[in-house]
Amino acid sequence: MLVVCNYKIKNMTLITSNINEAKELLDNEDVVAIPTETVYGLAGNIFSEKALKKIYALKSRPSYNPLIVHIKSISDLHLVACEIPDKALKLADAFWPGPLTLILKKQPTISDIVTAGKQTVAVRVPNHPIALELLKKLDYPVAAPSANPFTSISPTTAQHVFEFFNSELKLILDGGSCIKGVESTIVGFLDNEVILYRHGSTSIEAIEKVIGKVKIFINDDVAPDAPGMLKKHYSPKTPIIRTDSIEESIKLHSNKKIGLLLFNTENTDLNIECQEILSKDSDLEEAASNLFAALHRLDKCKLELIIAEKFPNKGQGKTINDRLSRATK
Ligand code: AMP
Ligand code: MG
Fold this sequence. Notes:
DHBP synthase, Rossmann fold, binds adenosine monophosphate
């Protein structure tokens, strides 16, 4: 049982941990923000056209970019998907609740608005106590894309969500800072092969331990057949570049007000206005969990340029590099 905190009201948006208030709004086909272990999501009943359309409108999300469905447990999988391959069940058993999204053949009851007209649906069980308790109280799964406007930095706190949507949202369920801090990994299935569509907070290495080799297919097209993994995404408002040499990039841009996004070591250049170290212990999981919050802070420093370091290309380093390469497009 979760303790219900007093809620804060900011310009008519409730920021609260009162799950029943969120349920009431969702039951009335409204949209609320919910915490997950990855990032905050904008949740709506998957069977409500009104709620689904509101999600797209709030995010200014193009209608070709489908939503991820969140279910309370593997036992609800048959409500949204059919013809589930053995490898998908193995992965669900191994990683749910958790940050792994499966692309599966959709049930006919799942609307084209959820799937952007595709015959497949993206589905996962989130691993956050508040999200799970909410889902258990609902008679339907929720669609919950990240609670940020299209292409901007994903939110990892209730405050980030509030800053994006302000009074456009009636309620934000506050579940603290997201532990994983980057989105779920997305995989699909084709001819007995497992295909990676998006790097995320479940590492490829962990997935391969369960089902063997994964084929990597990251499609950058605008309206791809598989995930809507857009080239430009996760972007701060401040211009951002990635570099192999922080020192050289600082020299090259010495006339600008610069901020740095670094892996493990502080930079001693006195001209640097703001810097964010993602993990002093060189822990890539910790670095990933701090990535978006650090970008939000840098974006508030009134900088002319953010220079980001390239991260080691293994484990969560691959996910960080993926997000930063899209942020810099
Ligand atoms: P987000 O909105 O940040 O939660 O991202 C959701 C991701 O899931 C996007 O990259 C979508 O394109 C992807 N996705 C959702 N449904 C499908 C689907 N049926 N097939 C492929 N990708 C999907
Ligand atoms: Mg997103």
